[in-house]
Amino acid sequence: MQINMLKTNYIKGYKMNKKRKHKNRKISINKTNKIIRQRHREKYHHVKGIKNGRNGKKRYILNKVIKLLDLKKFYYKIDRKDNVVIIEIPSIFSLITNPEQTIQTLKKIFTAIQNEKINELFLDYSKCEELGLCASSVTDIIILNAIKYRKMINKPLNPRGNIPKSDEARKIFIISGLIKHLGISKVEDKNIIRLDIIKNEEQGKMTDKIIQYYDRCLNTQNYQLTVQGKSRFAHMIGEVLDNVNQHAGELATWYASGHFNIDKNRKDGKCRLVLFDFGNSIYEGLNREDTTEYTKKLLRDKTKEHYNIFNKKWNEEPLWMLYVLQYNVSRKRIDINDDRGKGTIKLINNFMNIGKNMDGNNPKMAILSGNGYILFDSTYTLKEENVNGQNIPIIAFNEENDLSKKPDSKYVKRIDENFPGTMISMEFYLDRKYIEKQMEESL
Asked: What is the structure's pLDDT at 130?
């Protein structure tokens, strides 16, 4: 009898333990599923109100641009009337010459498209006199992604607007801007050569298309790149794309765009070329763990060197940006003998040298990444300096051309607004007479 009772108690205990184990297993599975769902939410953009078939479960949509701009908190206060928002485009809408106000405007556009109560967005270009291809291209990418996104969540967005004030801004808007990409404008101009927005293509293909476009622009001046010239430019642009891509991160999306306008009377022209990504900034990329110890030490040393002169407009972010532009500086450089980090500085130098015209107009180029801003307009140029017995090309943006001293705040600075990625925007001239003059002087 005692044995049977012990046996019965053992069996009951066994059953209770079995139930407890089963319950604990269910809890564990639920926790695991919860973690998986959380990771899924972090990877994909969660769209409310979309039902998947009969079960009515919510699903997730992958839209890298919308997701990344949301994660970067790319928002700004806007005023809306019922379901309509009117956003006034500033008189200078350019990331080269008016970066902070331009970024604020781009943030307003993104804020409006994220608000599901807004179904009409009106972009008022009536006061816009200067339209940069850089600002126009970023606007186009945000709006085009917004239209797709809002269709997916069954909250359609109707973007409308008017036309810029000046002739030059109007041409960029109509020939290379949003209404062209939406298929609304059928206007073509034989005096304009466009590089339609290239997006998310393999680096080699993107480089080839940019080189072909630049060569087409040169052809208007009866010049063309030699095989060696194409190879050199391909190497430089490829290295620039590779360098920025190293910083950009997993959610990055890459774009390139171009607009060349030929002067009817003179037959020379102004070329605009834009390379940009939505992703991590250069500074964020340099702070990643996989930056080499060699480069980390160089950056730490530069920070110590400048620490006592840091202020609101000059801090570690623009300092690091300026430093990685220099000759033989790269996030992946492993030691002093490593040959990386020459493409960006060579590209800048080539465009600055060839990009002037006979009227004395200088090319402009801006690099904008996170809160860092660098402007090139030929005021400060690349010069060879003797460093440890070697002649090395340096551009420090100060009279002494010394990287240990603070640069001119007009040209290198921290801006208050944050660009969510990296923008390289170039405006330069192609003038046959000036090119011939440069060739004669080089002989």
From this structure: 95
